[in-house]
Amino acid sequence: MNISGSNLPAMSGAGPSGEVYSASLAKKQQQADGRAALALIESAGSAAAAQTPAKSVTASLGNNINVYA
Predict the structure, then answer these.
(1) Which domain of life is it from (predicted)?
(2) Interacting residues of 19 by C-beta distance below 8 A, sequence separation 6+
């Protein structure tokens, strides 16, 4: 990804200060993306821990079949 002030329409001709501003915006966006990813991972972990375990399957499961015509 190429980030430079000359590629931004509002910053054309701004020189190095435009590049610094653009890099600052990119860094802030990456930090926001990282925080969102961490929040997603934490919520997925807590949701998995809160689920109840599945009931155990017994050997007699399915032995009785009720068929009515």
Answers:
(1) Bacteria
(2) 3, 4, 5
**Does the predicted model carry a pTM greater than 0.85?**
no
pLDDT digits (tens, 9 = 90+) for 10-50: 555 567 788 999 999 999 999 999 999 999 999 887 766 66
CA dihedral 33, 39, 44, 46 (to 10 degrees): 170
- CA dihedral for 27, 29, 4, 2, sign (positive or negative): positive
Tell me if 24 sits within 8 A of 11, measured CB to CB.
Answer: no
CA distances from 30 to 3, 17, 22, 27, 52 (A): 13, 20, 12, 5, 36
Q: Contact at 8 Å (CB) between 3 and 9?
A: no
Token output for 51: 């689920």
- d(CA 61, CA 55) in angstroms, rounded, equals 12
